[in-house]
């Protein structure tokens, strides 16, 4: 049976291990939804000042998508770097920032977008987070920011520069 990477010769168990391992420096990113789930993302893959899109990290050595756990699901947004907080600027790659898609309250996916304020909202209990401030909590019940991934550019692609800056998952579930 073909693996996720198609050409991979890894045993299934090894591929599972890679798919469930957390994002690591050098991983590239692909869209989690839509038709194209294999092309490495660049800044131009994202519409500036628009709502979050979901993405997965990919192990570059094996082209294995790390979609073995929802804790690896990311939300990406793209901004003029000037509107990012100082910390956000440090984490961004050409204005693109990445946070976990998993709410820090009770681990729902943060899927909603409040266009008026440029905030992401969790549909479960309506916590809001600011992607321009490195995932800061704007409105509870969540009390902890969305863990973020520092990004970098490599050969025109967006890649992970550092692991998550906090524990991914909910505080009450
Ligand atoms: S799980 Fe997100 S606000 Fe409760």
The total strand number stands at 12
Strand percentage lies at 25-35%
Second rung of CATH, namely the architecture? 3-layer Sandwich
- First-to-last CA distance: 35 Å
Helix tally equals 2
Mean pLDDT: 93
* Shape type: globular
Broad structural category = mainly beta
Number of domains: 1
Organism: Pelagibacterium lacus
GO molecular function, one term: 2 iron, 2 sulfur cluster binding
Keywords: 2Fe-2S, Disulfide bond, Iron, Iron-sulfur, Metal-binding
Protein name: Rieske (2Fe-2S) protein
Structure in words:
With 173 residues, the chain is mainly β. The protein has one domain: Rieske Iron-sulfur Protein (3-layer Sandwich). The chain is built from 2 helices and 12 strands. The chain has helices at residues 12-20, 86-91; strands at 28-31, 53-59, 64-65, 74-78, 96-100, 112-114, 119-121, 128-130, 136-139, 148-149, 151-154, 157-160. Strands 1, 2, 3, 4, 5 and 10 form a 6-stranded antiparallel sheet that branches. Strand 8 (128-130) and strand 9 form a beta hairpin. The chain is globular, with a radius of gyration of 15 Å. The termini are far apart. 38% of the residues are buried. Residues 1-6 have low confidence and may be disordered. The chain binds FE2/S2 (inorganic) cluster (FES). Residues 103, 105-106, 108, 122, 124-125, 127, 141-142 line the site of FE2/S2 (inorganic) cluster.
Secondary-structure topology with pairs:
Layout: H1 12-20, E1 28-31, E2 53-59, E3 64-65, E4 74-78, H2 86-91, E5 96-100, E6 112-114, E7 119-121, E8 128-130, E9 136-139, E10 148-149, E11 151-154, E12 157-160
Antiparallel strand pairs: 1-2, 2-3, 2-4, 4-5, 5-10, 6-7, 7-8, 8-9, 11-12
């Amino acid at each position: 049976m073909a693996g996720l990477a198609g050409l991979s010769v890894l045993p299934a168990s090894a591929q599972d291990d890679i798919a469930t391992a957390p994002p690591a420096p050098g991983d590239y990113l692909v869209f989690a939804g839509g038709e194209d789930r294999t092309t490495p993302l660049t800044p131009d893959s994202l519409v500036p000042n628009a709502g979050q899109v979901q993405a997965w990290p990919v192990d570059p050595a094996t082209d294995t998508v790390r979609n073995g756990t929802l804790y690896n699901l990311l939300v990406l947004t793209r901004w003029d770097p000037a509107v990012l907080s100082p910390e956000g600027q440090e984490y961004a790659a050409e204005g693109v920032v990445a946070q976990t898609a998993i709410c820090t309250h009770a681990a729902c996916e943060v899927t909603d977008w409040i266009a008026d304020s440029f905030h992401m909202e969790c549909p479960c209990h309506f916590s809001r987070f600011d992607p321009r401030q490195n995932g800061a909590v704007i409105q509870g019940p969540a009390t902890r920011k969305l863990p973020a991934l520092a990004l970098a550019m490599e050969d025109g692609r967006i890649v992970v520069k550092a692991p998550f800056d906090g524990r991914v998952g909910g505080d009450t579930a």
